[in-house]
Write a structure and sequence with these properties.
two-stranded antiparallel ribbon, 9 strands, alpha/beta, 5-stranded mixed beta sheet, Restriction Endonuclease
Length: 311
């Protein structure tokens, strides 16, 4: 559909494929190889990105679908957008998804099982203020020399607490065998009163997967993510063990697209939806807005709960 081999969609040559991804905000340039397989590989990479709604594709894929239905492009090629929408929905219905146009003609997705719509989760990130830019620079400088424990205790714990997570509990590194892939765990209460549980696997270094295989750090993360999903945490507030619903993979460095793609490929289909990535740039933007008053020269005192099992 992106390349236009489906007759309901405008045809795109190599030049216009590169232009399409550029309009979506991605630095992809077609290398001259077979268009179908090259685009399929790029879309696969994009679908490993972050998402605001677990019942929908990644935010990057949602952006691609929106751009796919550019009215001007359809008009120039004398194509019917409604016919193209029917073709897209034939593909999406296998995943319990449905594409639709809003009143302005913009394309969104709806999960037909849960009713979640991409229009509800869409948000434009505002630019940082001068004060936030200054705080971002301070946090970035702190990360240059901070250890993994300092990154966790001084920055991640207060960040998640201010985002509304409860019992943000650091496992610590004294007894690694007892972590079971969790550097910290926490829980979040839904508006319905139900709780969902999160773990985090935290790395200071860059995560990469050059040549189609994970480096040592990335391979370690894969093993620890599997352990985090398979081993329950004990919640002292309910006095029971629970399995985590999602695992954050957080790096103070970069998490490359190849690393994200490699990790997702190694996990089974159900586990893929449980992983949330956060790398240096995303963390810095969040911390600049949420941790504006955090003094890094005087680390915030955090009252961490004890996770000792009471028996």
């Amino acid at each position: 559909m992106v390349i236009g081999d489906n007759s309901a969609f405008p045809y795109r040559s190599s030049f216009y494929i590169s232009q399409f991804f550029e309009k979506c905000g991605f630095p992809f340039s077609h290398d001259g190889s077979t268009r179908k397989w090259w685009v399929a590989a790029r879309l696969k990479e994009l679908n490993t990105g972050s998402y605001q709604a677990a019942d929908l594709p990644s935010d990057d894929i949602l952006r691609v679908i929106t751009e796919l239905f550019d009215l001007d492009h359809f008009d120039r090629k004398e194509k019917d957008m409604n016919a193209a929408l029917v073709e897209l929905n034939r593909l999406l219905q296998k995943q319990s998804l449905e594409a639709y146009f809003d009143a302005s003609g913009r394309c969104y997705l709806r999960n037909t099982g849960t009713g979640v719509v991409s229009s509800a989760s869409e948000q434009q990130t505002r630019p940082l203020t001068a004060e936030e830019i200054s705080q971002r620079q301070k946090v970035a400088a702190f990360l240059e020399s901070a250890s993994e424990d300092e990154f966790t205790q001084s920055l991640l714990v207060p960040l998640f607490q201010r985002l509304g997570f409860r019992r943000v509990s650091v496992t610590g590194h004294d007894e690694k065998l007892l972590e079971y892939g969790k550097d910290l765990w926490m829980k979040y209460q839904l508006p319905t009163g139900h709780w969902i549980y999160f773990a985090a696997q935290i790395k200071r270094e860059k995560l990469d997967a050059r040549g189609g295989s994970g480096d040592k750090n990335t391979a370690t993360v894969l093993d620890q993510v599997r352990m985090a999903l398979d081993h329950p945490v004990f919640d002292p507030e309910t006095s029971r063990k629970v399995l985590v619903d999602h695992v954050y993979v957080i790096s103070a460095g970069e998490i490359t697209r190849s690393a994200r793609n490699w990790l997702v490929e190694k996990l089974d289909q159900s586990q893929r939806r449980q992983i949330i990535f956060m790398d240096r740039e995303e963390f810095l933007d969040n911390s600049a807005r949420i941790l504006m008053d955090l003094r890094l020269d005087e680390p915030e005192t955090v009252d961490l709960p004890s996770d000792d099992v009471p028996f």
